Structure to design on (102 residues):
């Protein structure tokens, strides 16, 4: 099973993680709409497309604000490589996450 961002980045902000109480929970492990995308648990393998996350680079907030730093992140590149032709493009993720029907 491919690893999720919190397993690779070791942020400790996942449910029950060592930093959850002090730094607050991350939205990614709870982002159920993305469950299974790029073979991840919830948003675990699409974290770069989830707004409002706190990344090691300090990038946080809207998708547009954080995208530049995320696209150079080693985890993003790992997921892209592991998924190969099955990788869900960022523009498709954004469409799904911002669909008014949801």
């Amino acid at each position: 099973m491919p690893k999720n961002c919190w397993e690779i980045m070791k942020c400790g902000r996942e449910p029950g993680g060592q930093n959850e109480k002090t730094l607050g929970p991350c939205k990614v492990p709870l982002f159920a709409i993305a469950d299974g995308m790029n073979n991840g648990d919830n948003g675990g393998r699409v974290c770069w497309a989830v707004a409002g996350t706190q990344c090691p680079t300090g990038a946080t907030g809207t998708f547009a604000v954080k995208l530049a730093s995320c696209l150079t992140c080693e985890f993003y590149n790992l997921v892209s490589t592991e998924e190969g032709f099955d990788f869900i493009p960022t523009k498709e993720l954004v469409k799904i996450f911002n669909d008014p029907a949801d």
